[in-house]
Write a structure and sequence with these properties.
Layout lengths: L22 E10 L5 H12 L9 H27 L6 H20 L4 E9 L3 H10 L4 E6 L6 H15 L7 E4 L7 H18 L4 E7 L3 H5 L4 H16 L6 E6 L12 H10 L4 E5 L8 H17 L4 E4 L7 H11 L5
Parallel strand pairs: 1-2, 1-3, 3-4, 5-6, 5-7, 7-8
Helix pairs in contact: 1-2, 3-11, 6-8, 6-11, 9-10
């Protein structure tokens, strides 16, 4: 029997001498529209918001709302926001993710020349299915899935697992699989966050308050057992300790809520408004949940929340960039997968 690259057998199955196992790493992030147009954004949102991990409303009811209301209104509005952050390289999230992919591949191959790294997005392109098929075509027999979500949550990391599983269900032979579900307390990740804050304060001074803002989540998801909230608090605590700051100096909050349901609190925008009204004049804000700058950081934090703070009486507002392709961040991601590289 012969085997193609798409039907790689276990070692020695065909009587040949075992060959070294080839390991593949799939680096994943959430995704982005292909273009900052209403049509492209509608296509992206339709995929994203159809995921039951993302929206927990009963499916039939939600699909009526999604296609009858949301996808008729929201794409045009969101397209304008994407246009405000789009660059010559395209979507910031995708262009940054590509740089992360390239730098991680270079770092991995310094010690493991036979390990290959591919990039995929949970929604949009390049898809997880496409990324996995590229690895299979290269003869990969061990898979490491590294979602770039430092704090596990079902709508992000859990959904990525679902997409990986769906693709692997179509493969006759499933390779060895290692799925990294978070790196929220990785020492190198915490130190990279701390270094980014130190670099900022060295230039702009220590703010009255350092806000650590995470993407929001419906409160019900936490009640149902999603540990995301706990992971966020852990990251904030470790960051605060690394910086040597007090509880009063560092505030954890949650952004990007949607709909009328109660989400994790305190809310970032309301926190900023309240601080300004109470006389806080200088804040700096970062979002450790985002491994790459995107709409939620470049527009929501950098623009919308700045306006909230300044209009409420604040004086100085700084957004500290995501870790993106900083060498210390890439080193942290490498450290997250290092024990599975052979």
């Amino acid at each position: 029997m012969t085997y193609s690259a798409n039907t790689v057998p276990p070692h020695g199955l065909n009587g040949s001498n075992p060959k070294p196992v080839k390991t593949g790493v799939l680096l994943t992030n959430l995704g982005t529209p292909d273009a900052p147009t209403t049509r492209a954004v509608r296509r992206y949102l339709a995929e994203f918001l159809s995921d039951s991990r993302v929206v927990g409303i009963p499916k039939l009811i939600w699909l009526v709302i999604l296609h009858g209301i949301i996808l008729r209104i929201r794409p045009a509005r969101s397209a304008k926001l994407y246009q405000s952050i789009w660059t010559e390289s395209g979507s910031p999230l995708l262009s940054i993710s590509r740089r992360q992919h390239q730098k991680l591949q270079e770092l991995v191959q310094q010690k493991h020349p036979d390990v290959v790294v591919e990039l995929a997005m949970r929604y949009g392109n390049p898809s997880i299915s496409e990324g996995l098929k590229k690895l299979r075509a290269q003869g990969v027999q061990r898979l490491i899935i590294q979602p770039l979500y430092p704090q596990y949550s079902a709508p992000t990391t859990g959904s990525t697992f679902d997409a990986v599983a769906r693709e692997l269900q179509t493969w006759r032979w499933v390779p060895e699989l290692h799925f990294i579900n978070n790196y929220c307390d990785n020492p190198l990740y915490i130190e990279a966050l701390a270094a980014s804050v130190r670099e900022h304060t060295a230039e702009h001074g220590l703010p009255d308050k350092l806000l650590v803002s995470y993407h929001g989540m419906p409160q019900q998801y936490f009640t149902d057992g999603d540990p995301y909230y706990c992971y966020c608090l852990k990251t904030s605590r470790l960051l605060r300790e690394a910086l040597g700051l007090t509880d009063e100096q560092v505030v954890t909050c949650f952004q990007s809520r949607f709909g009328k349901a109660q989400w994790l609190q305190p809310y970032t925008d309301m926190t900023l408004k309240g601080m300004a009204e109470d006389g806080v004049q200088h804040v700096a804000i970062l979002s450790p949940a985002f491994s790459a700058d995107c709409l939620e950081t470049l527009e929501e934090l950098e623009v919308e929340n700045r306006d909230v703070f300044m209009q409420a009486g604040g004086k100085t507002y700084h957004y500290i960039a995501a870790l993106n392709d900083r060498p210390d961040h890439i080193a942290a991601v490498y450290d997250s997968i290092a024990s599975y590289l052979k």
